[in-house]
Amino acid sequence: MALPDDYLKYPKRAYGMDHDRYTWSILQKRPKVAWPNGARIALWVVPALEFFPLDQPAQPFRAPGGMVTPYPDLRHYTLRDYGNRVGVFRVFKLLDALAIKASVAVNSKVAQRYPLLIDEIDARGWEVIAGGVDMGRLHYGGMDAAAEMAQVRESLSVLREATGQAVTGWLSPAKSESENTLDLVAAEGVDYVCDWINDDMPYEIETKYGTIHSMPHAHEIDDQTIMMGYHHSEAQFVDQVRDQFDVLYGETETEGGRIMAVTIHPWMSGQPHRIRALEAALAHIMAHDGVWSATGAEILAAFKGQG
Amino acid sequence: MQKEDPGLYDYWPYKDRPKLEWPNGARVALWVAPNIEFYELDPPANPKRTPWPRPTPAILPYAQRDYGNRAGHWRMMEVMDRCGVRGSVSLNVALCEHHPELIEECVKRDWEFYSHGIYNTRYCYDMDEAQERAIIEDAIETVRKHTGQTIAGWLAPALTHTERTMDLLAEYGLLYTCDLFCDDQPQPVKVKSGRFISIPYSLEMNDIIVYNFNFQAPRRYADMLKANFDQLYEEGAASGTVMCIPLHAYAVGQPHRIQPFAEALEYITGHDDVWVTTGREIAQWYLDHHYDTALKDIAKYKAGAAGG
Fold first, then answer.
1. Measured between CB atoms, does A99 come within 8 Å of chain B?
2. What is the pLDDT of residues A146-202, one digit of tens each?
3. A206-217 pLDDT tens trace
4. B57–A248 CB contact, under 8 Å
């Protein structure tokens, strides 16, 4: 049987993208960006504090890293909870030792369940990015808009209350959005989202409630992507983070300032056999001149201030 | 009815083939094939394949691919420029309309364009003949309009075919397919009319297969490329071989992957007796110099052929 005739119709076949969220643009053709104090690289380190519920729904899909076996999957529940109990303290200690400032992406459930972790972030003066409610409460195409709005508000209100921060960054669990997510988070005062992995620099995203920005949250050199998704070794993780940095650092000679994002899952990199790999990767970066360790909000403010 | 064999070529053992001679006595014909692709955010449903693993909008895999056009392409192109390599672009032809700036850069560099369908989210499974003709004609016309070139090659969109694809491509005057992975040298393809060949387009050396399916690390990819070249170069002293490096800017153009690739390409193009060329040039050379000899040699192996 042949395909329907519509299969050979292309209603969006025209200049630019096939949607209206952002405009088509080539990274290397844009104006150069200058960072404060002549920095070459804005280093944006983003640990994620996640809560994977034991009753994580299987529909529409499970966030990677979630429950695998039939209920009750104690194995994956506790492996992920390890990050909030143990791994996070190794990661924070390492960041302190290297004088790195972080933006911590937090599920609001973590703030409610483990308020001590919010105190730890607060004591360091770090930024909190809203990471949704928890890893079982996805945002996904076709979900009810009112239910999604409640989820967005729950995440932002809990985190704003717990931290006293404006909380202007948003990272959707599993980087999954519905068709409405960008509008809903913009309506609730979010300035930037971390879900879009199509660029190395910030760019403008259009919503019903005004223009916000996409920030280049690293996905391809994320510890979970490399060591869980691709099954690479710790040494290969270090190679890839270093190689990423070296290329971006080299590009700043001709292309203007760049952003080096490093995303970390304490349940992954905070394991005893991995923490030194993370140390080796980050120490390589910090050994260079012209590295500005900053939060997402600070980097975005500098980017927007280019005029 | 399904068949046990695609019926596109006869068994033709690698040993004892007539010597394949490339221009100027080259041992290896090297071609680099960047796939320049457009994946739709909301493609139509296809009965045989679901485009995205998540509900629409599947922004994560969509953005992952969009990265190639926005950021990765330039890095990949600069490495190829540095090594003196012209690309043979495996093109989702709708990209001519969406991102003409990328096409212009490739035209400036005298790269070849061949067709990889309209979008990488439109599959050929279950197309009737009229539909399949329509996408071939669309590809020919679109590439001609935007580049002045007449396409000579075809890599099926998202590697999706029908049983009549090769016959139609030959009828429309195309010279080569990239969809047969059974050889390291070109070979004739059995079609209803005209002369049509397969040239090696390697899935083993394809960056996206290496990275996203086989989960290899960038430095290992570079090692694989070098080892693949070394062997084909050694064998090429006796009879010419083809090395293809299929690329995707969204994979190889990532900052953490570009440098190992650059080192491998510099290593390969640093050798003498490598014909750095394009798909079209390989196909034309083969048709002009080797196609007839190959047919005769293949006939020797047909069941019942006298003399063996």
1. no
2. 999 999 999 999 999 999 999 999 999 999 999 999 999 999 999 999 999 999 999
3. 999 999 999 999
4. no
> What residues contact residue B299 under an 8 Å CB cut-off, 6+ apart?
B305
Peptide bond into B100 cis (omega under 30): no
Query: Does residue B162 contact residue B6 with C-beta atoms inside 8 Å?
Result: no
Residues 39-98 of B with CB under 8 A from A: 40-42, 44, 46-47, 53-60, 62-67, 69-71, 73-75, 94, 97-98
Mean pLDDT of chain A: 97
Q: How many CB atoms lie within 10 A of CB A182?
A: 27
pLDDT class of A2 with cuts at 50, 70, 90: confident
CA-wise closest residue to B50 among B128, B131, B160, B139: B160
CB contact (8 A) between residue B67 and residue A197: yes
Residue B303 in this model has a pLDDT that exceeds 80? no
Give the model's confidence band at B305: pLDDT under 50 very low, under 70 low, under 90 confident, else very high: low
Architecture in CATH of B23-299: Alpha-Beta Barrel (3.20)
* A84 CB-side CA count, 13 A: 21
> Using one digit for the tens of pLDDT, what is the confidence trace for B236-268?
999 999 999 999 999 999 999 999 999 999 999
Task: Provide the chain A residues 243-272 that lie in CB contact (below 8 A) with chain B.
Answer: 243-244, 246-248, 251
DSSP state of A3: P
Give start and end residues of each alpha helix (H) in chain B.
59-67, 73-82, 95-98, 100-108, 129-147, 165-171, 207-208, 218-235, 249-252, 255-269, 279-289, 291-299
Contact A243 B53 (CB under 8 A): no
Q: Assess A240–B contact: CB distance below 8 Å, yes or no.
A: yes
State the ipTM, two decimals. Answer: 0.97
Q: Number of Cβ pairs closer than 8 Å across A and B? A: 150
- Summarised one tens digit per residue, pLDDT across range B93-135 is 999 999 999 999 999 999 999 999 999 999 999 999 999 999 9
CB atoms within 10 A of CB B62: 25
The torsion region of residue A76 among left (phi > 0), alpha (psi -120 to 50) and beta comes to alpha
The C-alpha atoms of residue A300 and residue B111 are separated, in whole angstroms, by 38
CATH superfamily of A32-304: Glycoside hydrolase/deacetylase (3.20.20.370)
User: What are B122's two structure tokens?
Assistant: 């439109």
